[in-house]
Structure formats: structure tokens, C-alpha cells
Specification:
The complex is a heterodimer. By secondary structure, chain A is mostly helical. Chain A has 24 helices and no strands. The longest helix of chain A has about 45 residues, at about 440-485. The radius of gyration of chain A is 33 Å and the shape is elongated. Chain B is α+β, with helices and mostly antiparallel strands. Chain B is built from four helices and three strands; from the N terminus they run αβααββα. Chain B is globular and about 45 Å long. In chain B, about 25% of the residues are buried. The chains are: A mainly alpha, B alpha+beta. Chains A and B meet through helix 2 and helix 3 of A and helix 2 and helix 3 of B.
Chain lengths: ~550, ~100
Amino acid sequence: MMLETHLRQAATVLLESAIRIAPPDTRDWGRAMAGELNYVEGPWAAVMWAAGGASVLAKQALVSLFIPGRRGQDLVPDGGLFAKNASLRKAALVIGGACVLAALLFFAAPPFRQAIGVALRPWSFMFRMASGNIQPGITTLAKQTEMRHDPEGLAFCAVRLQDAHESARQAEEAVRLDPNLLWVYAVVAMRHPELRETSQWVEKLERWDPQNALFHLIAAESIVRPHHPLGTWAPPNQDQDQAWRTAMAAAFQSPKFDDYLDRVADLTRKVVARYGFYDPYEVESRAELDLPRSAIENSERFALSLLRSGQELEARGDLQGAREQYWAVARYGQVIDSQGHTGFEHWGGTYLQSMAYKPLKALSEKEGNSAEAALFGYLAAKLDPVKGEHASVPKESAFGLDTSRRNAAVVEISGLMILIFSGLVVIALTILIAGTRRSAGPAAQRAKPVATMVVLTSAVGLLFSSVTLYLTYRPYWYIFQSAILNGDRVQTRDLQEFLSSMQMLPGVPPRLYLLLDALLYSRSPSFLFYVWTGVTLLGVSGLVLILLRHLLGHPRSHAP
Amino acid sequence: MKTPRISPETLLVLERFLERPTDWRYGYELSRETGLKSGTLYPILMRLEKYSLLEACWVATEDGVPPRHTYRLTPNGLELARNKLAEARPRSMVRQPAFCNG
């Protein structure tokens, strides 16, 4: 019985509250719904009745916000909810203030501060493009490390700077100060094989770590890069082809493969902690430190030439020679697969192995060695790039790409909402403060109820957006902290996927994004930011227009 | 005469009004008869009233209980309801045999 009474009271309170926020011309309808409440059978049915009625009134209130002057009336012809009831207006301002304060308190939490930076990063990219400095954080850090003559700091910046010449300069300086950082040349050259320093760096690296296949891959890429700058392959001339073949043959004969990503991770931990450089975008952009796709493409091309050569030897009856050619490919694939650090490297290694095991199986069958043929057949099937266990780049992330994309969209939108709501709160507060002056005109007075409503709704929106941003980004903050403080890189792939998803337009399927990007790519990959900035500006202009219409454009219909 | 968009739910409401065209009807009563929730029913009533197809009046109740809003169709509303239901019925009748035979 008590429960029934409480539920009916709750239903009444709900409807009465909705009537208060409803536009005046629909309040009678609210009262009509409230009048029926006494006849609704069952307490829960009464609550549902009230909820349905409240939703109708709330919708009317929202519509009236955008379409003022419906039926010849203003949004708030008598001042609406807040006009006559000064105490209610004060209560709304107190609640709004509390929400703003609560939202501001989030700034005390490090994950939130980092989340704000990450959320606004895609939007600020446009301005950085305009200023000509797309890596202001790294550039500033590079200056600091240079002034301090800190070789590790210089190396950290060198491997991340997108400007090839600046990157090379920093790397040279880092190695000059600390020769043990010679491996930095390899990481920089891997990203910028077109640098003229590459050949002398490769010579030094080969002396320092003579068995590593990586330097030969860099050398090979530096030979062919001028011929396919945009990823298109054009055969180099005879001399270049010979040099490329020599480099690739050396890579295929190397017993070791090290991309130095472990050293990069150690260096990162030290430098980030030393300089307090907690910028996930710059620190965790491992995709750019990963083995370039061109290295696997070069390997595939050379592997195919070895396999062709093996088939020719086989046709001439030189089975031993053919076997050596096939084995060279399989062995190189094993080296890359077993010693690589990233999913892409493992995938490349298994792919090359699968290419070799098929002709090896056929050769073993030809030689009558059925046991060996069965083994190669099993390996070829297992490593098949289409049907095998390694059919795609192995999944390294725990959350999954879809989750990362969804979270990235939520973070992007939450960050934008925080900006918009903050702006609205500031504008509405300014109007309210202006309205308190004695000299304030009638327009300012009339604006006070609307401004109060804007303060309240924007403050609630600000708090909601802040909570959403904090909760969505927090797991990534933990991943980043674990990687930096403890060297725990188990989930860094999730962070990297999330950060790369942050570059995408929320709600647009990645394939469409790639298509648009390909269609509109014109030296500046930032068209999406221009699109979004346009959308945002349009939205903000619309809101400002609505406010202006309410505040200035509509004289009260019942004004004396 | 401008008329509102007539949805299937609006037709349901008009049908109920036509059953007793001169009677004043309560919101909850209409809700029970049509099975429409308050969130669906009242926007329909508001729209009909906006186009002068529906008239509403308050009815006093016993002391302490809020008055009730009652509704009935205006002559224009009755005409529209009859026309729309007449249009709708043949369509439903055409479909019916297919189900019966099936």
C-alpha cells in the first residue's frame, strides 16, 4: 500500500515537473494528463502514464527552444519556468554551478587531463598544419634535449620527428654524444630511407651489428625508393637492380633480425619520465616505427625471384640447387617470424615461409621423400596466407579494433561537447551578469530566463560529457602508464589502435574514410578536420542564431 | 481545410470517436480503448486540436480531485474521420480475403 502511494506520488511529481518546463501553450495538456492520473488503474501503470506524458511535454519544450514564437508566442512569453520564480532560477544556477564545479574537478585527475589533450588533438591538428609545425610537442622537446646535450632525449625525438632532415640531424647529434645509441640510425633510416646519410649509416651499422638483416633491407629500400615514392613499383635500372639484389641477398643470408623496437621502448620509458612528456600521440605512434610495408614487399619480390630461379634449376634437373633456393626463402621467413616484434613482422615471416614450403613439398615428392613432403605440405597449409592459421595479421589487441573505433568516436565527440557546453555556459553567464546591471535594457532582462535555462542544461551537458570522456579514456590511460612506468606493453596495441582511430571521422565506416581520403588526398591529409570544423562551426552558428532570435528578434506577443 | 498527417494510430483514435460521436471522451478512456500509451495518444489529440478537428473542455470533479479534460470531434473532425476511415476500410477489406483463403 505504501509502495503504491509512493509510486503514485512519484508519477504526480514527474508530471508536475514536466508541466513546469513545458511551453505555456502545452501546459494545459500536461494538466490534462495529470488529471487522468487519478483514474489510471495500478501504480506502475500510473508511473508509465506519467512518464509518457512527461516525454511529450519535454519534447514540446525542446521543440519550442528551436522554434520560438509558435502560435504567436515566444519560447517563454511569461518568462517560462524561470521568469517569475526567482528562487527556482537561483536553484537552477546553483545546480548549474555545482555541475560546472564537478566537471572542473575532473581536471584534478591525470587521466582526464590526458583525455582532454587526446580528444582535442584531431581538432588542433588543423591549426598545427596552418602554423607549419605539425609536431609542436616533439619540436619543443627536441630543443630542450639539444640544450641539455641529452643523447637519449635527442634519440627519442629523432625516431619520432616527421621532418626527415631534422630527424637525421638529431640522430647524428645523439650518436655523437653517445656512440652506444648507434642503433637509432637504423630506426630513423627505416622511416626515411631516402636520406642521403643512409648509406654511410648502413656501413656503420653493419660493422656494429654485422648479422642483422634489417640494415640490408634499409639499403635495398634506399635504392628503390626514388622509383616508387608513392608505393608504385617501377623496376630500377640494371645497376640499381644489381645493387638491390646484392642488398636483398645479404638480408636473406642474415641469421638475425632486430628492428630495435625493444630499445626504442626502453628509451621511451626513460625520456618520457625524465621530461614529463606524457603525450600518447607522439609516444605511442609505433605504427610509424613498425617495419615499413616496403621491407616486406622487397622481401616478397626477392623471394619470388629466388623461387623462379629454383624452378628453372629444377627444370634443368639441378634438384639440389633448386632446394637451396627454396630453403633460402623459407629460412629468411623463419628469421623474420621468430625474431620480429610486431604482428606485421610475424605475418610477413609466415607468408614468406608458406611461399617456400609449397615448392619444397613438390620437390620432396619428386625425390620420393614422402615423409618430408608431408611435413612441407603440413607447414604450407598451416602458414597459408589465405586459408591457414596466419591468414591475417595476428590480432594483438585485447579490446579489438571495433571497440577502439567506437571509443575513439566517443572521446572525439565528448571532447567537442565539452568545448561547446563550456562556450554556452560562458555566453549564458555573461548574459546573466549583463542582466543584473541597473543599466541593462529590456532585451537583457528578457534574456535572463533563457540564459538560466542554457546555463543549467549546458552545465549538465558539460558534466555528462566530462564523465563520459573520463570513463571512456581511463583504460587507455592505464595502458599508457603501464607501458611508460612498468614497461608493460601487453596492451599497447589497443592504445595504438585507439589513437589511429582518433584520426577518423566518427560514424564513418573505415572503408569509406579510406576512399574519401584517397579521393581527396592532396598533400594534406587533413580534409576530415576541415569537414568537421565546418560542421562544428555550422552547429555553433546555428546555436548562436537561435539564442539571438530568442533574445532580440521576438517581441513578446502579450507585452503591453 | 488543412489537415494533419493521419497515421494508423490517429485512425484508431478517430475510429473510437466515431463510435459515439457526440460523447465527450476522457484521455485515459481513449488510451484503454485504443491501447495507445499516453506518450502516443496525447500528441495525436494535441495535433487534432491544433487543426480544429477536436474540441476539449474541462470537467469539474469532486472536491480535491483535479478536473478532467474531455474531448470530442468537431464537425470538421467528424467529416475528416469519416472520410479517412472510409478510405482506409476498402484497403483493409481488399487484403482480408488473401488471409482468409490462405
